[in-house]
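Notes from the 1:1 (GR / supervisor)

We went over the backlog. Supervisor wanted to see one worked example end to end before approving the batch request, so GR pasted a single chain during the call. The sequence is below; no edits were made to it. Supervisor asked that the structure be written out right there so they could see what the output format looks like.
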Amino acid sequence: MTIPESDLAVAPNSDQFLDAFSRIEKLLRRMVDGRRVDSFTFLVREAAKRSATVRRVEQDLLEYADLRNAIVHERGGGFVIAEPAMLVRSRASNGWSGS
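Structure output shown during the call:
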């Protein structure tokens, strides 16, 4: 079976999810005065200590880190093996202000 070339590229939901994830990571890093070497999990846990908003969505954020890792690190043959659902992408894109 041949996989179409278009299926080998990162899908739009993945791109949008990864962009949103990056914005959230930067926000968390600023909230906790984190270093570049600090893991996303560390940033989430530290920010949850300081912010009720982050505390409320802490588990979602940690699960999104797993999804991000599946998208970025676990590609089989050059294609995305995990595609975020529209709801997940929407929540990551629009969800949290970090207050």
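Supervisor's comment: The chain has one domain: 17-94.
Batch request approved.
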